[in-house]
Amino acid sequence: MNDNISGWNEWSVAFEQWNDVSISELHGLMTGLMTACYAPDEQGWATVLEELSFAPLPEPALTLLTEEAEDTVFQLKDKDDAYAYTPLVPDDEHDLYERVMALKQWANGFMTGFGISDCRLTAEENEMLSDLAKIGAIRLAEDEDYEGGEESYLYIYEFARMVPVSFATRKRKSVKELALIAGLPIDAKTTQERQAEGALLKPIPPVVDVMNQHNPS
């Protein structure tokens, strides 16, 4: 899929003046959140991004993100339609290094977006996120050949693409219900306190701190 069809060029233009994270990472964050939530309006997205300590989006970028989220939720709600989902990464006219780094960033964004949804995971989903975390942990110098080349890239791309497809039909909630937005009761126990009491009933997905992902290497 070329950059015009995938939306890469449109996103690049809309987010030209905003560089808190890459467009691939933001697209991954949006996708991860949309596997668990209904698409919010522009104000809802502005609130989510503010709580994640991002700078405000330019109006065209905020509108594009909002529309893309609506399309993504619509696509992922149907298992058959979900198979057509594609991460936002550059096409094969770009250097392999650039594509690998974009997919790495998308993976990290997805884990952040899904992580803040605080959804329960099946054993299979937890394993998929663990494998996705390995993509997010790829380290590659710009002048270094990616091991396995194009064939390896296509393999990890297809795996990453199938993660939101596999998560597609779960029950969704409003972003207003997220602890990130709604806040926690003043007497809420920390994770460490709950662990100490043996009350942690579900595994915590591998969430990558969005603010530590500015360095693509």
UniProtKB/TrEMBL annotation:
InterPro entries: YgfB-like (IPR011978), YgfB-like_sf (IPR036255). Transmembrane segments: none annotated. Belongs to the UPF0149 family. This is UPF0149 family protein.
